[in-house]
């Protein structure tokens, strides 16, 4: 009898096993799409719930406070009489922190990305990139105390008369925090540039620095700009660093050495439980949150547009 031949009893055992495997695959093929859809719908429903909550409470707030006074008022004093709800001081403080952070993060992050992509040996890159990305895992409250105890004293030594709470210290540390975002995303975009473009430039006599700046960076421009916009969006939403280091003074100023208050810091201040539910002061939390949501939403749309508009396909 040939070795590969199966007896009648062996065939009877193989057929049920094969049938069981096929039925299990059929069940998995039917169940997995439903399970994955439920996982996806959770995030969608969560987003819808957040938007509905913000919109509902914001609507109740604007029934009591004119929206024009809210958007264009230059005084923010919702807790201390005479009460005023002009968001421009909070918006100005938020943008001041964000601009300082981007001035720190974008050049350093881009330089780090160029080094990792074009200069660093493979062994060094495997070590440096994970170490750089560790910065993204540091709790933001640790960054806040770092700004308060290390960066602020240095700024006070350089600029005499600077207070303990100032926008410059908070902005610098927020910039340090978002460096990994700029560096990692930009480096990924540069690594996606085909090697043939680099080799062609080297064949024409270009130096490594010229290749990096004139070939690789323009080719990866969409990814670099998208990383900068996303970092800008991340800096706008930062909370603990600005709460600890920037202060709680809603001050409409361009001087980074003064104490300011951001939108997120105000939300933390009022959310501590001292403000009664249903009051105008309580509703101002949601109005500020809705403003912050709209800004970050528009920035994300801008990042996606830039990525599509300037994307290079090879």
Dominant shape = globular
Look at the structure and give the mean pLDDT: 83
CATH level-1 class of the largest domain: Mainly Alpha
Strand content: under 5%
Largest sheet: 2 strands, antiparallel
Give the SSE map:
Blueprint: H1 8-62, H2 67-72, E1 76-77, E2 84-85, H3 88-119, H4 122-133, H5 140-158, H6 167-191, H7 195-203, H8 208-219, H9 221-236, H10 240-245, H11 263-270, H12 280-309
Antiparallel strand pairs: 1-2
The gist of it:
By secondary structure, the chain is mainly α.
What does this structure look like?
By secondary structure, the chain is mainly α. It folds into two domains: 8-63; 71-309, MetI-like fold, CATH 1.10.3720.10. Helices cover 73% and strands 1% of the residues. It is built from twelve helices and two strands, in the order ααββαααααααααα. The protein has helices spanning 8-62, 67-72, 88-119, 122-133, 140-158, 167-191, 195-203, 208-219, 221-236, 240-245, 263-270, 280-309; strands at 76-77, 84-85. Strands 1-2 form a two-stranded antiparallel ribbon. β1 and β2 form a beta hairpin. α5 (140-158) crosses α6. The protein is globular and about 70 Å long.
């Amino acid at each position: 009898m040939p070795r590969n031949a199966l007896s009648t009893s062996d065939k009877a055992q193989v057929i049920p096993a094969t049938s069981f495997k096929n039925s299990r695959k059929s069940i998995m093929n039917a169940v997995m799409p439903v399970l994955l859809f439920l996982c996806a719908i959770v995030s969608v429903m969560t987003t819808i719930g957040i938007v509905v909550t913000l919109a509902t409470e914001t609507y109740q707030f604007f029934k009591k406070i004119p929206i024009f006074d809210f958007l264009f008022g230059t005084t923010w004093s919702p807790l201390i009489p005479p009460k005023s709800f002009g968001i421009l001081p909070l918006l100005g403080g938020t943008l001041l922190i964000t601009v300082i952070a981007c001035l720190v993060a974008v050049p350093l992050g881009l330089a780090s990305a160029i080094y990792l992509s074009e200069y660093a040996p493979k062994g060094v890159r495997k070590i440096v990139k994970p170490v750089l990305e560790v910065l993204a895992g540091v709790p933001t409250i640790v960054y806040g105390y770092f700004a308060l105890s290390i960066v602020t004293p240095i700024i006070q030594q350089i600029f005499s008369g600077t207070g303990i709470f100032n926008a410059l210290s908070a902005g610098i540390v927020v910039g340090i925090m978002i460096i990994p975002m700029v560096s990692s995303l930009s480096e990924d975009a540069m690594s996606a540039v085909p090697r043939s473009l680099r080799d062609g430039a080297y064949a024409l006599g270009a130096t490594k620095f010229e290749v990096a700046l004139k070939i690789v960076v323009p080719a990866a421009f969409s990814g670099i700009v998208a990383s900068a916009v996303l970092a800008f969006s991340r800096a706008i939403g930062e909370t603990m660093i600005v709460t600890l280091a920037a202060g709680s003074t809603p001050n409409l100023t361009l001087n980074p050495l003064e104490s300011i208050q951001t939108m997120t810091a105000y939300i933390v201040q009022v959310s501590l439980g001292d403000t009664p539910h249903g009051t105008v002061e309580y509703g101002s939390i949601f109005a500020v949150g809705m403003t912050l949501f709209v800004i970050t939403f528009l920035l994300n749309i801008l990042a996606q547009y830039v990525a599509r508009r300037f994307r290079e396909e090879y």
